[in-house]
Amino acid sequence: MKAPSFAYERAESLARACALLHQHAGNARILAGGQSLIPALNLRLSQPDLLIDISQLNELRHITVTATELVVGALTRHADIERSADVKRLFPVLTQAAAQIAHPAIRNRGTMGGSIALADPAAEWPAATLALDMSLTLASERGERRVPADSFFKGIYETGMAQDEMLKSIHIPLPAAGTRSAFGELTRRSGDYAITGAFVTARKSGATLSATRIAFFGVAGQPLLARGAMAALDGTTGDAAAVARAQACLAADLDPIADLYNTPATKLHLSRVLLARLVAQLA
Amino acid sequence: MENAFQLAVKVNGADVAKTVEPRTHLIDFLRNDLGLTGSHIGCEHGVCGACTVLVNGEIVRGCLTLACQTHGAEVETVEGLTESGLIADLQTAFHQRNALQCGYCTPGMLVCATALLTEKPHATREEIREYLSGNFCRCTGYEAIVDAIETTAKNRAAGKQLAATNNAEAA
Ligand SMILES: Cc1cc2nc3c(=O)[nH]c(=O)nc-3n(C[C@H](O)[C@H](O)[C@H](O)COP(=O)(O)OP(=O)(O)OC[C@H]3O[C@@H](n4cnc5c(N)ncnc54)[C@H](O)[C@@H]3O)c2cc1C
Ligand code: FES
Ligand code: FES
């Protein structure tokens, strides 16, 4: 199908984009990579009056390392992350995850900010923000505010962003010494959305795990931290008994919902399998 | 025309200026306004890859890009690639290996393979399959397409080696 009619403006600055959002509150949509918004328009799931095209705002397309964090501009494309040497050195799980998002032609245009703003429960980046304890800078005419990812996702395609706000940048704290991480997802075909997927990170001193964080996607209405499983692994060596306890916790942690092809029981089982594989990779 | 947009874009090396509606997809602009019907339309929501074209040298979905977003950019389609002669070897390999039957997916496959051969000139069969995973073919079963791309990669590598040897001998 074809998209409905709408007005279009290419924003030449972040300030202009915020002003337009404010002026047309509720009736305008930000157009970043367009890889989710344009399909939604084509299917007429969305009918905005105005598209504010920010895809040319190069000030929002960068990957910067500071003393304490990696800052990723909202317009950084999936392909930019896949190819970044800094990302690969500091957060190899993000390099791996980028390669699992859709297909090369879509990764060339889709952005990390767009994926987080959309908050698709099956998407990789929203879960990554939870596992790596990221925070997000939101901008509007009223100014900027920084929010922890932990409190950003509210439900299916729902976030804590106000109608006149946009996502400006993503902040990832640099890993503490001894941090290990692993990423994995289960799909039927390459490029599909995951049946279940997860990021796991933990600090390792000797063989003991601490500060374990496990974020799942594709199982519930929003990406979520598996807090029970995290607690079950902390203070252990990630041995078979600890993994079994963590796997048992997933029933309450995830409470999976069915998708078109998979029942909640399938999703729970596969999430348990995946968790064991990822914990083994922390070794 | 509602919300008319004055578009200036380079298509296959030629400057084009046209008035478009913002809702016009790049693929419809190429096919309907410019008559470049080499690129095809399948699903119109990013899944099949039939509409793959190059924008500033990168492959994109023509059905998930608005024509007005390419204002100031360079677009290349299978017609441009064909005329330049740059993919003649790839096209010959597709023909020889039977890598097309109905041909509906072929323009998208050729454009995608062009990007792959530039990015990963020594791609393995596994890498070729992965890179093409977003391009559907309902006829060939893919094996022949992978064969054709692998053959082209090998021939290009051998050709380069031959050229390097010849240069060394000439020097
Ligand atoms: C065939 C196909 C397969 C896919 N597979 C996957 C997959 O496996 N995993 C995955 O994660 N994704 C997948 N995607 C989606 C893809 O990753 C999108 O690129 C991404 O979800 C959205 O990013 P975008 O830049 O394209 O955003 P857009 O489509 O431009 O925007 C998406 C939404 O976010 C809003 N928005 C965008 N940027 C901002 C901002 N900076 N501030 C505020 N709001 C903003 C828009 O208004 C819109 O509502 C797939 C897409 C397709 C077509
Ligand atoms: S028509 Fe564009 S991907 Fe199918
Ligand atoms: S040759 Fe018919 S779809 Fe590929």
Which terms summarize this structure?
heterodimer; A: 283 residues; alpha+beta; Uridine Diphospho-n-acetylenolpyruvylglucosamine Reductase, domain 2; Uridine Diphospho-n-acetylenolpyruvylglucosamine Reductase, domain 3; Enolase-like, domain 1; 5-stranded antiparallel β-sheet; 4-stranded antiparallel β-sheet; 11 helices; B: 171 residues; Ubiquitin-like (UB roll); DNA polymerase, domain 1; 2 domains; 5-stranded mixed β-sheet; 15% strand; binds flavin-adenine dinucleotide; binds FE2/S2 (inorganic) cluster
Structure characterization notes:
- The complex is a heterodimer of chains A (283) and B (171).
- Chain A is 33% helix and 27% strand.
- Chain A has 283 residues and is of the alpha+beta class.
- In chain A, the strands form 4 sheets. A 5-stranded antiparallel sheet of chain A has the order 4-5-10-6-7.
- In chain A, helix 2 links the parallel strand 2 and strand 3.
- The model of chain A has no long low-confidence stretch (mean pLDDT 96).
- Chain B is of the alpha+beta class and 171 residues long.
- Chain B folds into 2 domains: 5-77, Beta-grasp domain (Ubiquitin-like (UB roll), Roll), CATH 3.10.20; 85-161, DNA polymerase, domain 1, CATH 1.10.150.
- In chain B, strands 2-1-5-3-4 form a 5-stranded mixed sheet.
- Chain B is globular, with a radius of gyration of 17 Å.
- Chain A binds chain B through residues 1-8, 10, 31, 34-35, 38-39, 41-43, 51, 53, 55, 79, 102-106, 108-109, 189-191, and chain B through 2-3, 5, 21-23, 25, 28, 44-46, 49, 52, 58-61, 63-66, 68-69, 71, 112, 115-116, 129-131, 133-135.
- The structure holds flavin-adenine dinucleotide (FAD) and FE2/S2 (inorganic) cluster (2 copies).
- The site of one FE2/S2 (inorganic) cluster has 10 residues of chain B, from loops.
